[in-house]
Amino acid sequence: MTGIFSYNRGIFNSTITLNHDYSASTGNRIVAEQNFYRSVNPVIRKYVQHSHSRSHLEVYGAEFSLNFSETNALSLQATWQPNYVPCSDFEQQNDFFSNAGQQPDSASVSKVEWKYHTRFANAGLKYDFKINRLNMDAQLDWLWQDDLTSTDNKFNFENFSIFDNVAIQTRQFRKSVAYVPSLNGNYGFGTSSLGFGAKYYFVESLLNLDFSENNIFTPESDFIYSATENIFAVYGVFNSSINRLRYEIGLRGEFSSLKGNFNIQNANQTLNEFLPSVSISYSIKDRQNISLSYNKNILRPPFSRISPLYYFTGPFDAYEGNPYLKPAVLNSLQLKYLFGNKSITLIYNNNKNVMGTFPFIRDNITVQKFFNYNQTIVGAVLGFPVKHTNWLNGQYTLRLYGQTVENADADAIFKAKILTSSVNIAENIKFPNSYTVNILFNYSLPQYVGADKIRTYPGINFSFAKSFNDNFSISLYLRDFFKINNKSITSRDLDDISFYSTNYWDSRSINISLTYKFYKGRRTNTKTFNSDEIGNRL
Question: What H or E segment, with its residue span, contains residue 124?
Answer without folding.
Answer: strand 106-131
